[in-house]
Amino acid sequence: MAVYTDVTEGELSAFLQNYPVGQLLSYKGIAEGTENSNFLLHTTAGSFILTLYEKRVEKADLPFFLGLMDHLAKKGISCPLPVHRHDGSMIGTLAGRPAVIITFLEGMWLRKPGVVHCREVGEALAAMHLAGADFTMHRANALAIDGWRKLWEASRARANEVEPGLAAEVDGDFADFERNWPCDLPTGIIHADLFPDNVFFLGEKLSGLIDFYFACDDFYAYDLATCLNAWCFEKDFSFNLTKGTALLAGYQSVRPLSEAEKQALPMLARGSALRFMLTRLYDWLTVPDGGLVMKRDPTEYIRRIRFHRAIGSASEYGLK
Amino acid sequence: MAVYTDVTEGELSAFLQNYPVGQLLSYKGIAEGTENSNFLLHTTAGSFILTLYEKRVEKADLPFFLGLMDHLAKKGISCPLPVHRHDGSMIGTLAGRPAVIITFLEGMWLRKPGVVHCREVGEALAAMHLAGADFTMHRANALAIDGWRKLWEASRARANEVEPGLAAEVDGDFADFERNWPCDLPTGIIHADLFPDNVFFLGEKLSGLIDFYFACDDFYAYDLATCLNAWCFEKDFSFNLTKGTALLAGYQSVRPLSEAEKQALPMLARGSALRFMLTRLYDWLTVPDGGLVMKRDPTEYIRRIRFHRAIGSASEYGLK
């Protein structure tokens, strides 16, 4: 939770003259987003989000992320729409950083999502997969297996500080992935970070998806596996089968899974849990305490990896 | 800049049922306010600020602060209006903390205020002083001379770490205050913290005053002296006489200063600079690095104290 970069009223007003967003009435730094600085703007034309991209986001990737949001919004997915500048472009410069204006979505992200919300997320994820199928830009998943290996190489020597025996345990996972990671599943644009703080609801209805800054090309079922990890475990690390059933049913009501995807789901869920464990572990070991980046406990995902390792078939997640 | 306490959608919805504010559409933690947790709410009835009071604010003082905002708003001062609950009260409980809903004011606080803004602030400060004159509640200034002494006693032993010789220098200031601090100036409700981040503007026009959580009874001219410190010094610590002239003229256009107030102004400005130096110094020496409380450099106010010490008469601030 952070605003890394403040903006003066003069530079913001000058910046906004490039956009069809009316007159500025107020702007507040908001305590959301771990990678960028975000401001909520009120103007005579409504509410907008101003995002300044900090160094963790690769500038060369911005046309992909913004083009994707533009594409999805035009296909009827409720997600922020980048506001085009008078010259047609989407990316400007503010306070020395790449900066964009996107439309504001009403809705709350849920600190305590329930079963009904899991079904909604499954439906929305599948709809996003279908809507992205004809998006023409591509982006490799920087946090696929090769990326995990790099994170692991940087963390392995100190992994046992987090939990004794963790280094050998994760080495075993990597060995399994070498043998059993699927290689031929339906692939396309995935969100790759569809955690509860990136999904807005109004009551029980999903009102929007946000934060496409990990979106990339990868297996659709891997995205679904990430949602199983993000939405269906309770705070005590127990897996809520009712939520899993709802999430998977919601997904399949829009895009039915193939047999190969169903069979691969436990391995994908284990890989996804490893991916989030590794980024958390890396931050845990390398980011100084008290910095602006919030460090999250990697052990929450060690628990998930162990759960998935013991899964025999996707029906144990509630898959019908 | 911080949100110390997060709020779940369930407890927030339950809380809002006590207020005539319509249905919740979104809430975002905002990165403003150093003492409390603040959220910007959108509801079907408009925009509101939700404030959760953290431990730095004395709960017993809340009726004074909220009553004052209520009083001033009804007198035509543009400031947040506390929204009354259905039972008529203003203070609820949320996430275990005292919490209130106040109306949202459009406008920007200025990172780079100019001369025209200084005049506006002077006028608004005087208008606030007049409007508060018939407010019936009272609150002693916890950061008057006795409060300064306590801060100084807690910091003096390490003051020379900040700048060699500082301890003896400030001892000298206290000796002067014992002899020369005024005791019989016009007194009433003052804002006591009217820095640029507590004043909103739309273009060149002042649109509102916020953050009354230091308000108290003290000399009106002391409040004006605080504004001289907060608005009329440049980043290089030079005093901008044009801004000082504008601030003082704006104030006197609404509430002319008495001869005694004019004569006291250099001493009041020096005392006010000492007050902000001391709270900064105390935080500097006691708050751990990397905590949520932003530590501000006390030396900015040491420079101001020295400037005021050399002032012979208030005409040097631009007073006519």
Automatic annotation (TrEMBL), chains A, B:
Which pathway, metabolic or otherwise, does it act in?
Amino-acid biosynthesis; L-threonine biosynthesis; L-threonine from L-aspartate: step 4/5
Listed GO MF terms: ATP binding; homoserine kinase activity
Where is the chain membrane-spanning?
Answer: none
**UniProt KW keywords:** Amino-acid biosynthesis, ATP-binding, Kinase, Nucleotide-binding, Threonine biosynthesis, Transferase
Annotated GO biological process: threonine biosynthetic process
EC? Answer: 2.7.1.39
Signal sequence span is: none
The protein's annotated catalytic reaction(s) are: L-homoserine + ATP = O-phospho-L-homoserine + ADP + H(+)
Domain (Aminoglycoside phosphotransferase): residue spans on this chain: 27-257
Spell out the Pfam families in the cross-references.
APH
Tell me its family.
Answer: Belongs to the pseudomonas-type ThrB family.
Q: By what name is this protein known?
A: Homoserine kinase
Give the species this sequence originates from: Mesorhizobium hungaricum
